[in-house]
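Quick board copy: two proteins, each given as sequence then tokens.
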Amino acid sequence: MDQLKGLNLAGVIPDEFGNLTYLQEIDLTRNYLDVSIRTSLAPIPLVSLSGLGNHLSGSIPKEIGDLATLEELVLENNQLEGPLPENLGNLRSLRRLQLKGLNLTGVIPDEFGNLTYLQEIQVWENDQLEGPLPENLGNLRSLRGLLISSIRWEYIFREYTKFYRELDQTCETRYARRITDLKGSPMDFPNLHNLMEMDKLRVEYGLIRIYRTVCDMRSLLSANNFTDTIPETFGNMKNLTDVLDGSMFSGKIPDFIGNWTKLEKLYMQGTSMEGPIPSTISLLTNLTELDLSFNRLRGQIPDTIDSLADLEYLFLTNNSLSGTIPSWISDSNQKFDVSYNNFTGPSSLTVCQQRAVNLVSSFSSSESSDSVLWCLKKDLPCPGDAKHHSLFINCGGDKITTEGNEYQRDLDGSGASHFSYYSEQWGYSSTGIFTGNGSAAIQS
């Protein structure tokens, strides 16, 4: 019955649908149906039921759990409320469950762990759901997508690690897709050891402690308040191709990062990582993007990074790196950024922007020699006495004068690693790229 999609239908779902004893699919997507889902649907041998994007209200009737043949249940973006019925755990044939954007309350029932054929769960944008997650979610061996977000978790994840003190290097955990916006006290990461088809993990904006629970993923994406060191078991993730992380990891970047030999993108900006950059990064021969900016890294830039022939973007902005700036960086035509560091030693640089390399404020404050340009010095000291008391910028336009005020031009469209200044009045430094869009600048 997919011909009922998007017809602006109003009213209620008719009880008479319950008489269509051979009906297998009901798709009422994008209509204006309201009131609760009808319990009269229970006798139908439905395989697929979708009420996406309507005005359905009330609670999800427990009778849906009696639809033994149901494989797909999509009720997202409605006004349904209340707790999730435990009876949904009876839908043993269910493969897809989408309950995004509702007003669900309470916890996700333990009975969800019975849905062994389930491939995708979406219960994000339900602000009143609470933890913990069912401990037996790790039994859902067919699960390929797990999306949970905007939830008031206190202790979402129970202690999974008591059963797994040692992580077998042959573990097959691959794809837990997204667990986002987790709030409340720090919590333990769940053991997904049995989820054999997974290849990506995305965990965002949460307070989670990671233990020995994952090893064979391809993509690790996160933006959490992780405050511990990077777990040693992450060194076993030899199939990783992307690490996009905005957590608060502490400690040194581990040497085992060299195990991620398939890695193409490594983003670890804005963490609390410290110490030297490990030379084992040079083993990541497929790396095209490396971002270690806004950390507490010290020491010299390893010359071994120069061996990464495919490296197009290198961002080491705002660290405490020292020594001399390697010539393979300063003479590069790639988009490299070493701005806001503590480099020392003689400088042969005669410009503030060397090709595509951002060098602004890259030298230590101890480098006061006149041989170092003002724009390369720490904190950008003014080259003379202050002459201006106001500033006007014509954003995105040329220099103009209006009402007696001169507006400076702003026409530079350069992106990833760039410093520009206009006369002696203002300038800007841009560093970083938006994921998948190297031509877009993130201005700082």
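And the next:
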Amino acid sequence: MLVCMFLRETIVIMDISFPMRKAKELKLGLDQNFGEGKSRICSLPDSILHHILSFLDLKEAVRTSVLSKRWEFLWTSVSKLEFKEDLKQSDEKREEFMDFVERALLLHDSSTLHTFSLTCKVPSNGPVSRVKSWIHAALGHKVQNMVLNLHFDNFHGSFMLPRHLFVSESLNELKLDFFYDLKLPSFVSFPSLKSLSLSKVIFMDDNSVNQLFSSCLNLVKLDLIQCKWYNLKHVYVSAPMLEHLKISESDDYEDTQHHCCKFMISGPRLKVFHYVGELTNEYCISEAPLLVDAHIDVYSGSSRTEREAADRAHKLFEGLATVKDLCVSSFTLEVLTDAEELVPSLPFFHDLNHLHLEVGTDDESLCHTCKAALLKILHNSPHLESIYFEPRMRSDMFSAQLDPVPPCFLTHLKKIKVDWSLGCEREVKELMAIIKSARVLERIELGYNYGATVNGAILDVLKGCIKSKVVFDRCPLRLLVDKLR
């Protein structure tokens, strides 16, 4: 970092506003020599200097060309090209940005690119071919990681990414972020792609999307963030190497709010599944024997009836029976209990070891049916070892409900963690209920905000129930109670 600071202080700002046609004739260096041959930095191997340049913004890296002849063309071999347009800038500045992108790509040598990142507007009053040519040029350098964040404000034309992108043999990671139609060619093949992230894209039809997912034979990670599925009826997410799947649904379906797309998810190696949204669509997980980590956050919305969401939530939970780590929000529990008669049919979690409860703070206590869903999960998790409350516990979560006591409390539950403890009487009541029922409990961890005062009442009650000393960790302040029995 010291080297980067030195470079920033010594480089001279270059004028990047001259025309593209003269790029080949550009003289990037000023004949200033800062002790070439004597400078320790200049004597370093190219590989190290390229590594140093990788920490600089691309424009700063280009400006190092004026330091000396040794640095004149070093930037043309950097392995990472990142272009980010100021989306609020004037048309004149925008033209300068576009010229800079083209010069940088034109002057870059033939070495392989590790990363190409582009954030810009797609021109509404100019040729979109310029943007496509940049992407094509990066693909020509056999880029490994590509990030495209394209903005289509006031754009009303037709746009399709270069066909060459969808048959790239070099791409390992691809991120597409744009609120526009994703038009796919008839043939798609990503033999090396391991990570795919799609944000806000509008999918056009079932066949093209299913072809896209089935063409990624080595895909390990897939993120689908606020994508638009209202043109589709069925989506099959299946890849032989897929391990991590994250889906985040948008809540702005407007007049298409009653549309439902059905997702069939399977994968012999799927290990992690995260979902956040309103369950606007239906999800079914099957043939995923290695699924061990699930994070489910279903929140209420207007895009479907309570009963529809409840049915979809139960269908989703049917595919989570193999998980070892489960994170659910209190809103998810409430959605599950909107179909109260289905709560007894929640699956058994034979392998569940850790339960993470994201408890909302809007209401002081959980509704009765919500607590019923939580207790059913506890009763169906015989090997549960720890429960983590984030940010805090709620009133009457356990004190009035632990009858009968979940089997895991008697044989396996060893740790309770509360991220934000209030130390109040209600919280003491809940902890007491757990301590009295959890026969093998070994540790309670209570977190406090910085500067918080530990309520002496909670300490007195806990000391009266245990035979061990209390330990404080003050960064952040935590109450650690070990060896409770």
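Board note added afterward: Residues 5-38, 467-478 have pLDDT under 50 and may be disordered.
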